[in-house]
Amino acid sequence: MQEATQPDPIAAIVDQWKRERPDLDATPMLVIGRLFRLTDALDQELRPPFGAAGLGSGDFDVLAALRRSGAPYTLSAGQLSRTVLVTTGAITKRVDRLEARGLVSRTVAETDSRGRVIGLTAAGVELTDQLIAVHLDNQRRLLAGLGEDEQTQLAGLLERLARTIAPGDG
Fold first, then answer.
1. Side-chain half-sphere of 164: how many Cα atoms within 13 Å?
2. Among candidates 142, 156, 153, 131, which has minimal Cα distance to 67?
3. Cis (ω within 30 of 0) for the bond into 7?
4. Residue 150 has pLDDT above 90, yes or no
5. What is the pTM of this model?
6. What is the distance, to the nearest Å, from the Cα of residue 9 to the centroid of all Cα atoms in its chain?
7. Domains of the chain as residue ranges with CATH
8. Going along 62-124, which residue ranges are E strands?
9. What is the pLDDT of residues 37-73, one digit of tens each?
């Protein structure tokens, strides 16, 4: 909820464009600009628990993808890449860091000796289970200004927007 004491900088930008270029409709900025600002703000709010656990950017995404894949918590690099939505090169760098910490292991794929399977270690499962609880509590805290119905409505609207912008991802 927007407090009266805090001006909305995106609305101010739109008002400025209305004044300077009344021939243009700048209202799309009310959605897109706010989404950009929220992305940055959310990143700042969600990252600290991962940093405190010594995880780099995106490392938790790999751990979480493996954990939610179900026992035995293993995926190929390609599967991880598709699940986490980054390149296999990015996955390799993340897995290297996580393997050095003893949170994941690599084994040779049974079906292809050139392929590798990445799996959570017991320490990786334990850390992921701890962090997902903290992460979800953090998300609940960030959404507390919206009622349950508002959260459901916003989730639906964002899903619809995502499908129109990136139809292959939904």
1. 6
2. 131
3. no
4. yes
5. 0.82
6. 25
7. 8-46 (no CATH), 55-162 (1.10.10.10)
8. 74-76, 104-108, 116-120
9. 999 999 999 999 999 999 987 999 999 999 999 999 9
